Amino acid sequence: ILKKSIWGVDISVVACHIAAFSLYLAMLNYLNPRDIIELKESGVRLPPLVGSNIMAMDFFDSNCSIHEMTFDLIIGNPPWAAATGKRTEFERWAKDNEYPIAARSIAQAFVWKAGAHVKEGGQITLLLPSNLLYNHSQKHLDFKKTWFRKFSINKIINLTDLRHFLFSEAVGPG
Q: How far is CA 158 from CA 19, 34, 103, 110, 143, in A?
């Protein structure tokens, strides 16, 4: 499953290693200690994930390994920050593909990019900032209008009220 069914991209190599470690722990959790010892003694090793299935790359870079791939299920937690400084790769990608993005929102760009990688009938689950729904500037409204027109949204779970419980240092509404 780890090598054939799970793929990931993050611009941070540290985040990639954390994701791989988390996947290893989840897999090992389904084995009993005796089985793990037997596998280790027989020379079985955990498969390398970082650099193969989990890539430290810019998700919006056309050279990204998953550029042409599609998936049945996409799960993600994109950055919630807005871009600063000069134009970024995600902004170029969104403009080239004619997707609206408000306030230089990386999360909004991830919504569109995930949609480009999901198979027909597939699902996307993203942890997104609440301003995607609650900001009423014209550019945000344009984003939402296009988003709800393009995708069938099955469920939205608002975690705003839990932000201080989940993230003790949270400042904004989530």
A: 25, 42, 21, 18, 18
